[in-house]
Amino acid sequence: MSGPKTASSRTPTKRILTELTAFSSAHSPSSPHPNILSLVPLPSNLLSLRCILSGHTLPPTSGYTTGRWLLSIQVPPQYPNQPPTITFVTKICHANVKWETGEICLDVLKENWTPVLGVVGALESVVRLLGEPGVDSPLNVEMGALLRQGDTIGARGLVGYWCGEERFEGHLDEEEEGGSNREEVRGRGKR
Amino acid sequence: MFQPQPTPYSPFSPYGLTAPMPDFPGFQPAGVVDNGGPTQFRDPIFSPVASNSINAGAPLTFNHNSNSHVAQRFKMDSNDIDAQEALARDFQPALEGPLVGEKRSSLAITEEYAKADPIYVTKTSALPQKYSHYRPILGDGNCGWRAAGFSYFETLIRLRNKAQLGEEIARMKSLDNLLKTAGGFAEWVFEDMAEEVTILLRELADLIPQSIPQAEQVLRDRFNDKAVSDSIVYYFRLLASSWMKANPASYEGFIQNGAGIVKYSQEWLEPPNQEIDHLGMTLLIDALLKPMGWAVEIVYLDRSDGSQANSHIFQQEDANGVPTNPAGPMIHLLYRPSHYDILYKDHGPPITIPQNMNIQVQRVNSLSHRHNIQNTPAMMGGDMSGMGDMSMFSCIPGFSLQPQPPSHHGFPSQYQQPLDQAFTPSSMSASMSASMSPTSPGASSATAPSNALPATFPAQPPPPSSLTPPTLTTPHPTFPPPTTQLPILTHLPAPHRPSLSSHTSLSGHPLSSELSSPSSASSFRPSKYEWEAAAEWEGPVVFQTSTFKNSHYNVAHYNNPNFQPEEWTPESEDPPTSGRKRSS
User: Fold this and answer.
1) Which of A8, B97, B117, B168 could form a disulfide with B227, with the two C-beta atoms 3.0–4.6 Å apart?
2) pLDDT at B448 over 50
3) How many helices (H) and strands (E) does chain B have?
4) Considering the domain boundaries, does residue B567 fall inside one?
5) Domain residues for A60?
């Protein structure tokens, strides 16, 4: 009786740990992931993760090449049957990201989620979304409007400006949670 | 009319709450609206929330406008469309009840459809005659996967075979490899889910020797625990996907729109809550159930023509399309468009006996019992008491317990003679066991006509064992092996032996020749399912005894093309009841 109960309750935690282990073993410091610069859980809660994304592999036309963002990942207890909630902590100017909250509108994080993706796969989808914004249901209507009008130069300029303004310069280390928070504060202050 | 596009964004540079206000006083009458509409309403991005807040902020402006009602209505329309679209997008059907429901009478389905389309009424009223019970599964998009998965575990419980559960644990472990290599799934994707399957199997293996109801309870609990249930269901999804990737040639042609194996898997198998389609069900059956030699019958309840729901049986077949394990357990699923439930054929409350497992066991027991009689005449006294319950076969019409002259049995005399000389009861027992060896001559002669008509299947070679002397000396080996399915149940041609004619020549009595035919071994008490099968049996039936001809076991009328069985239909019942109501 107790066996399965513990199994089901530890499922997200255990799975997150294995995912993190797989990620760190596949991407050692010598061969880092091109976009996911770091992915660590909060020391207090394994199901709240932080991650730094870099846009340097994205096409220059997108305007996100110089960007570096801090993201927060909340893993629900029903994970992996339910998707993790990923939000931009660093402000980003993107048609499918809400400016105020950093909420991301992406199908694979909502109704098209599959457990096969995992957290890393979900983050990779977010990076792909940066390069291919969808303008049909924009969360950021100004950006959506610019893109729909075909004003790519204006959009790129705006994106590039905010990438520079809001760029997250901190680093994530498990023991330096305070430090990353400080960086975050500094980043906001700059604005 | 209202045109959502293109949307000019320039007038509202800081797009949102502040800008549209000045435009309201200049709102145009309806005619102008039709010609292009005011800009502020043309924007589909305009969220209902924003529009409402504008509305709340500008009631005065609206009231002063003579056309305010037009504007209001127009606004409402635009909001309605938005709201409806949002509703449709976020629509979640109300899902109530447990993931896997309690078993209940399938009459409930008939009642559910009582007021539906006549085709449904006909089909659902025929359903409970074949399937006594059903188990509703929650329609959350996983119903097909959950129904098949639940049936898998439930059938394992039903079989009560602890060793088989152990084998299944080993098989699941070995399937991990398939998921990794063929499926291409990293181990961390599925290891937790695979573990849930293994844990449940292990739990059931521990419980089965102790208490079947407890094992069933555990299974229901696990499948209604959403975390465990979804994990198991998702494991089966990955299993089906891997199975397809491992055998692409068998399934590629069934994928619609030429999506390809990988895309199909990503779009139909991997997303949780994505309904199972026919190919998915085929994959799951092929990967999970067929390797165990189980069959799955899917009953399709839809509006196609016919008086009964169509059904299709998925089972392991050899190259000629003959089922390799026809006696294996069968799982029944009820399919209604985009939904699966589980059906049961049995009447007994919790435990179903898969097919004729128990009948076989009893038959084997009685055989060994009789074997003792023949070999050790000293035990006759005790065995005669055992004979008592065999005398119940005399209830079967056409069955005779009268001792026959030994020569009529077709047995070699050198075996029979000593018994006859030993003491008189032994001749009785010998003749009894001989005449009893077919055990249900009535049923078999009625439903398996092949032994009466040797010429019907001339191409079929006689099983060699029936011709060897040992089969004649003891009735034991002449019986079909226990694994043989009852011919009536499977619709297979009954094992036919042309050698029968030689039997007949040996014995003058036609009935005894038939009785000694090993092919007539069958169940003692025909269930109504067998009779349904018998109805479908196409072949001439010949009766040799007058007793049987008048028996209600006689199904010869099925061969009459004009035969119309008396059927109860709700419609035929209606006029009298309504008449009664009117009169009262």
Assistant:
1) A8
2) no
3) 26, 6
4) no
5) 12-23+33-166
Domain count, chain B: 1
The CATH number linked to A79 is 3.10.110.10
- Please tell me the total count of domains within chain A: 1
Q: Which tokens is B290 given?
A: 């067929």
A21 to chain B, closest Cα gap in Å: 10
Domain assignment of residue A131, yes or no:
yes
Other CB atoms within 10 A of residue B441 CB: 30
Q: What is the pLDDT of residues B222-270, one digit of tens each?
A: 999 888 898 899 999 999 999 999 999 989 888 888 888 988 998 889 8
**Cβ of residue B196 closer than 8 Å to a chain A Cβ:** yes
Q: Which of B196, B225, B272 sits opposite A115 (nearest CB)?
A: B272
Domain CATH code at residue B215: 1.20.1300.20
* A interface test, pick of B5, B7, B9 with most A CB neighbours within 10 Å: B9
Give the three-state DSSP class for B427.
Answer: helix
> Domain for residue A45, yes or no?
yes
ipTM entry: 0.72
Q: Is residue A106 part of a domain?
A: yes
CA distances (Å), origin B139, targets B92, B94, B95, B218, B275 = 11, 10, 7, 22, 9
Task: Give how far B276 is from chain A: nearest CA, Å.
Answer: 15
- Catalytic one among A51, A93, A105, A163? A105
Strand partners, B312: B298
Read off the DSSP letter of residue B43: -
**Full domain range(s) for residue B174:** 104-344
Instruction: Give this prediction's pTM.
Output: 0.55
Provide the shortest C-alpha distance from residue A44 to chain B (in Å).
Answer: 23
